[in-house]
């Protein structure tokens, strides 16, 4: 259950869709959607209450305050370090330019030796974070290295001329940076460049702020794009499911219509093949049966039919005789068999007589 104070905070925070939008705006790093919040109202109330105590990154207000103070302190130390580091780099660049020109100068020789001695002393002098009992490099002590400093008068002369030389060097670098940022100002006079140089820091700061604003805008657009992408994918999935349902519901009907059309097609194709076969048979018959062959076949048929007719008449005559013989009974059958044997003997004797007569004539 929610307390009365939490309910009041929720009322002040927003209602309905506005509540969901404000919750999503308060926690941009969370992968949530308005649908998730709608389906889980208690979780939405918890986020509303939690938004009163934490920022958009998830830090509590007290921790955020401490973090801001630590960030300010860090920035202060960072500026001091960058200031000294920038000065050190400028001095090294001045020495390098002097070495490139190969022009002897007591000022630069003294400055180079001072820098080297100071660097060595810092390396030999243990800091508060290192072990003080650790042996020094090569057994050297800082006081031994300090003895290598140039003459005092040369050092003092170098210190008096250093601000002017450093100013000239830095001015040259600033003008080079100005020409790099605005190449169209390269041909302007030095006084005009110095005047424009005074506005360079403000312009760079303005460009930096504009870049940060663009980054924030890009981040917001990225989050919005991710939400829209998820919404688009969810809608696309719904459309796919609806399409699958339509396909499953109408597939059988479509398949039946398709099968019917295929059946009609194959029936028409089969009929065409049958007609083509009949046409080929007619062509074969026309090539095989010429008019002369048909006339000869007709004569042969007439002759065969006449012989068949005479054979049928003879068959009927024999059947009539056979029927008359069968009426006489078994006694006549024995006489018929004996008559048949006698006829065979007569035929054999006639054949033998014929053969004998032929042999005798030879």
Automatic annotation (TrEMBL):
Coiled coil: 294-321
GO-annotated cellular components: HAUS complex
Keyword Coiled coil: yes
Listed InterPro entries: HAUS4 (IPR029327), HAUS4_met (IPR026214)
Keyword Coiled coil listed: yes
A Gene Ontology BP annotation from the UniProt entry: spindle assembly
Keyword line: Coiled coil
GO molecular-function terms, A-Z: microtubule minus-end binding
Protein name: HAUS augmin-like complex, subunit 4
Species of the source: Neogobius melanostomus
